[in-house]
Amino acid sequence: MYKNFLIVASKKDKAGINITTALSQYGDYKFLLVDDDIIYDSNYSEEKLSPFDFVIFASRHQSKKGGKTLSLHAPGNWKSAEFGGTEKKVCPTSAQFLKQTFEKLNKNVKEHDLRDYEVTLECTHHGPIINKPCMFIEIGATETEWNDRRAAFVVAKTINQIIDDFKENPYSEVAIGIGGPHYCPNFNKIQLDSNFALSHIIPEYSLPLTEEMVKEAINKTEEEVDVIILDWKGLGKAEDRQKVMDVLKVYNIPIKKTSEVLK
User: Fold this and answer.
1) Strand pairing partners for 8?
2) Which of 72, 140, 156, 199 fits as disulfide partner to 95, beta carbons 3.0 to 4.6 Å?
3) Considering just the CA atoms, what is the radius of gyration of the chain in Å?
């Protein structure tokens, strides 16, 4: 499916530069180092991106709470575009690529004894908006972690492996996720320990759900979406859950709860 990969990082981003430096030791990859933060659309032109099938954004993750994290997510905005991109638009992404990357990242963290880092999905958020399948892989959440070369090595090794090893899996069930918090604990378990492959995740804080949001998530998943998975307890109150179900009625796609998948 994907043969030509582009790795993007910002010259302003210590984590991104450390990841790309470590990755360059694995071989001759195609890099795009941009001057501004990578979340802004102005960094990318059709001419720069057209030769590539998939874009991997290597980046820092910033959080006021701190903590050591290695995270994955697709870019895009369900509502406003405060941090790059376009409001109510998300990027194309691959559920299978995200799943296999997440599995490899978890494995490499254990193999290299980086156990003080939490490996997590994040919901779809922030820019840029590009017309190529893509994902973010990030080191968080403070300058200490951005400068941690062990973490950069593990992320670089994961990128190297997924580019070398990615294969389409006709047996995995492709899903979008709705509900729950930003760091998706229930969807983490599903991505790692089940046959479901998740692409876009719409968190509780982006609700109320609209048909346009669901269409965007489905249409911007490279594979055909087989199921919609709901973090039922992370959909708000009873009336909020009912609103979600009302929106989903128009789609002829099976619905499962995270509790059903995680039995």
Assistant:
1) 32, 57
2) 199
3) 17
List the structure tokens of 33.
């180092």
Q: Any idea where the domains of the chain sit in the sequence?
A: 5-165, 173-261
Which residues are 221's β-sheet partners? 93
Average pLDDT over residues 142-160: 97
Q: What is the mean pLDDT of residues 208-229?
A: 98
Q: What is the mean pLDDT of residues 107-120?
A: 95
Answer yes or no: are the C-beta atoms of 216 and 89 closer than 8 Å. yes
Average pLDDT, the chain: 96
Q: Residue 234 is encoded by which pair of tokens?
A: 């992370």
Joined tokens for residue 1: 């499916």
Tokens 């958020």, residue? 125
Q: CA-to-CA distance for 185 and 161, rounded, in angstroms?
A: 25
84 alpha carbon, distance to own chain's centre: 16
Cite the beta strand spans of 97-226 per DSSP E.
118-121, 134-141, 173-178, 196-202
Q: pLDDT digits over 173-218, tens only?
A: 999 999 999 999 999 999 999 999 999 999 999 999 999 999 999 9
Helix (H) or strand (E) holding 241: helix 238-248
Is the domain covering 173-261 a CATH 3.40.50.1000 domain?
A: no
Q: Inform me whether the pLDDT recorded for 65 exceeds 80.
A: no
Rounded Cα distance between 86 and 77, Å, is 7
| CATH superfamily of the domain spanning 5-165 | AF0625-like (3.40.630.50)
